[in-house]
Design a protein that fits this description.
- The chain is an alpha/beta fold.
- Helix content is 54%, strand content 18%.
- Strand 8, helix 9 and strand 9 form a beta-alpha-beta unit.
- It comes from Chelatococcus caeni.
- Pfam families: SBP_bac_3.
- It is a multi-pass membrane protein.
């Protein structure tokens, strides 16, 4: 009986030792347990995609944190921030990694870690934005100048007809056919009206003719000055009104935003006319073809795009508005939130986040 008990105890000890060894072996091959499902949304320079590999400031930060947590992970990509937040809320992913802005509405859906980046909104416009031909025509019409131009045109035509009749009667060398004579007179009148210089023509009446030609020259200079000043005035006004310096200049214009972003929520709340896009490249294309007047988006995203693509013909204008913060997101009650928050604070203290910011935005950012 005693021998049987001893044998059973020995077998139990062996089984326990084997189970412990297997557990250690499993822990070594998969540190920290199951891989963390990390949801990402491509938003340069925070999340970028190179083939099947993700990189960017937020991705680099997370991978440094994961190494310190000794946790494996896998990535899942989502088309919009809204999709990413909803996937995190539903528990499809354990952690949302991107330039995810902390908002009250999102905080009702998911939990946020310690913020790791200060952001906000800015405006991007076309570098060559200005008044086009039809804008000038519309401005001249609204100002009443087109009506004045019509009267000037009638006066020019009447003057050409009268001059033709006058020269046909007094100048024997003037073309006899009305068509040819009118063309010659019209050219003479337009030469004075458009250049302000006297036309080359006979002086048929001595000093009286010269005085008449001088008066006609003054009238031509006046017409030229009026047309020039009116067009310049309208173009200057259009240039001033077309300029966008801040959010106050967006009223009545169509602006572009990225779908399901904080900027999208902002323009809807402000009542601005807008179009939404899935990517910054689509929004810039719409800006280039004139479909939208400006893009409202996270300042770092716009600044990075303009800096990394100097030939894109865009510029970022105005001051930062609607300041906000970026954080990572977890499902409500996740055990991952606290260790990730602790590691973010440690990364701040070690200067790792400042180093990443300098890498992607320069030392002066």
């Amino acid at each position: 009986m005693r021998a049987t008990t001893t044998i059973l105890c020995a077998l139990a000890f062996i089984l326990l030792a084997a189970g412990h060894a297997r557990a250690q072996e499993a822990g070594t091959s998969r540190p920290g347990g199951e891989p963390i499902a990390v949801g990402v949304h491509v938003s340069p320079p925070f999340v970028m995609k190179d083939g099947a590999r993700f990189n960017g400031m937020a991705v680099e930060l997370w991978e440094e944190l994961a190494a310190r947590l000794e946790r494996p992970y896998t990535y899942r990509e989502y088309a919009t921030f809204g999709d990413l937040v909803r996937a995190t809320e539903a528990g499809e992913v354990d952690l949302a990694v991107s330039n995810l802005t902390v908002t009250e509405r999102r905080a009702q859906q998911i939990d946020f870690t310690q913020p790791w980046f200060d952001g906000g909104l800015r405006i991007m416009v076309s570098a060559g934005a200005g008044a086009g031909f039809w804008d000038v025509v519309g401005g001249l019409s609204d100002s009443g100048y087109l009506r004045s131009y019509a009267w000037i045109a009638l006066v020019i035509l009447a003057a050409a007809v009268l001059l033709t009749a006058f020269d046909r009667y007094f100048d024997k060398d003037f073309p006899r056919r009305w068509r040819d004579g009118f063309a010659e007179s019209f050219y003479t009148v337009m030469q004075v009206a458009t250049t302000g210089r006297p036309a080359s023509r006979k002086n048929l009446f001595g000093w009286i003719g010269r005085i008449w030609q001088g008066l006609w020259l003054v009238a031509g200079v006046a017409v030229l000055a009026f047309v020039t000043s009116s067009v310049t005035s309208v173009m200057t006004t259009l240039a001033l009104t077309n300029q966008i310096h801040g959010i106050q200049d967006l009223a009545g214009r169509t602006v572009g935003v990225l779908r399901d972003t904080v900027a999208h929520e902002y323009v809807r709340g402000a009542g601005l006319r807008h179009s939404s896009f899935l990517s910054i490249e689509e929004a810039v294309a719409a800006l280039g073809d004139g479909s939208i007047a400006a893009i409202v988006e996270d300042a770092p995203v716009l600044e990075y795009y303009a800096h990394s693509r100097p030939g894109a013909g865009v510029r970022v204008v105005g001051r930062l508005f609607e300041p906000d913060k970026y954080a990572f997101g977890t499902p409500h009650g996740s055990d991952l939130r606290r260790p990730v928050t602790v590691q973010i604070l440690a990364a701040h203290e070690r200067g790792e986040i400042a180093r990443l910011r300098a890498k992607y935005f320069g030392d002066g950012s």
